[in-house]
Amino acid sequence: MMDYNLDYIGLENRPDYHAPTLVPLSAKGGKYYVCVTIPDVLRKGSQKQMMRSTGTTDPRVAKTKLVPLANQIYAEFDRKLTRLHKQYVNETNEIGFTQTIGDFSNVFVTNPLAIQMHGLDKDPALKITRLLPTWIQHLEDTNQGDYKERTSRFNKLNEFVQVVGDLNVQDVGKVHGYQYAKWNHAQGRANKTITSLNTKVSAFLTWCEQEGHIQENPLVNMKLSNFGKKSLPYLPFEPDELRGLFDQEMAEQDRLCLTILATTGARLDEIALLTWDQIKTDFGGLMYLDLRPDETVVKTDGSHRVIPIHSQIAPLLSGGKGRVFDYKIDRNGKAQNDASSQLMEYVRTVTRHPRKAVHSLRGTFKQMLENAGVTEEMVEQLETGQISLGEIERSMKDNAVEKRVNDKITGHSARDVSGKYGFGPLLIPRAIAVERLDLSFLNISKH
């Protein structure tokens, strides 16, 4: 199992237990101990706290041990509560109170508030925080999402617990989903984000349904349109911003990466991870990026495609081995974070607009394509030999590029598949459209 930092707590994530404290004990030679107040229902005799030694007198070292030792204590509380639950079930069965809701007389715990607080009338093993590590392990075992996504799901479920409490999953209802949505709305989160967070919680509850822990997922079909701010898209660069971006002095690989992004409409991670063997030449010297192989890291299945390279950019891609760029690859197999941190420095010198970023080059590229065009009929005529590439070029003139071609280039439609007769139409119309772009903003001769 990978280390997901599967804390029982996150410290603040256990509303049913007291928070831990770090205390130096003179009787123990000044060593620091992690102390947690024992819940009333588990307390025996005069002992009020459970402690674990950090084994050190150094407060800085002791602080690093706070979370794991507190987790040990909380795990012990969980085990004791489970035993109490089993005892409760046995005793209620023996005295016939199983079907008598709220009648806890003659049971070892007579305080109904304590019973409700600690969920002794229901299996503590079905609390959200108790099931969460098993669900994350299930996601890993079934290869669902990458490390980053699984960690995000774990953290957001803990956030859900902070808002609604560490409920038994059988007690979770739609009201808790809306409670979480209202809380996220108050945090200023966007509607798209709130919907995504609801999906993460709902996915956990779907798994609970599949495992037989609950009858059905209560968070399906929630109405969330009125929660959160409406998401605003990235804005394309203005012509002067685009020229200013490429007029800067910058590292050679950063310039090449930005150049490819600006002239292909590709996503940052697609280019940051690019390898030299993905750069190919066909059809009489036409260069293109081949993102069709299944092992290529792309955002969606429809993003597997071929991307033409403008003839002015082709000489910059002279060839090599391995990766084209050396941006650091993270544990999720992505390089976009390192690449973005470097490239955004150049973007911020030309604009401080919060909706303009490296990703804005995709929108800028699509705008540049608007005055180039090719129709589906032209593709079919080219395939059958009825017309030539030159005739297509002459006939296009100032028509707007067909949306199908635009989407194919930027990866917003069904994935490309190669075949005996299919590859030319996949690439050639896009290459023609791309070739019509004015790339003077790159000022290639200067750099």
Explain this structure.
This protein has 447 residues and is mainly alpha-helical. It folds into 3 domains: 21-117; 126-210, DNA polymerase, domain 1 (Orthogonal Bundle), CATH 1.10.150; 239-442, hpI Integrase, Chain A (Orthogonal Bundle), CATH 1.10.443. The chain has helices at residues 59-64, 66-95, 112-118, 128-141, 147-164, 174-186, 191-210, 239-247, 252-264, 268-272, 336-350, 360-369, 376-384, 389-396, 403-410, 423-435, and strands at 21-25, 31-37, 49-53, 279-282, 286-290, 306-308. The protein has a 3-stranded antiparallel beta sheet. The protein is elongated, with a radius of gyration of 30 Å.
**What's the average pLDDT?**
79
**Strand residues, percent:** 5-15%
Q: Name the CATH homologous superfamily of the largest domain.
A: Intergrase catalytic core
Strand order of the largest sheet: 1-2-3
Q: What is the helix tally?
A: 16
CATH architecture of the largest domain: Orthogonal Bundle
Pattern of helices and strands: EEEHHHHHHHHHHEEEHHHHHH
CA(first)-CA(last) distance: 49 Å
**Radius of gyration (Å):** 30 Å
Low-confidence stretches: 1-15, 94-110, 396-402, 416-425
Tell me about the biggest sheet? 3 strands, antiparallel
**Percent of residues in helices:** 40-55%
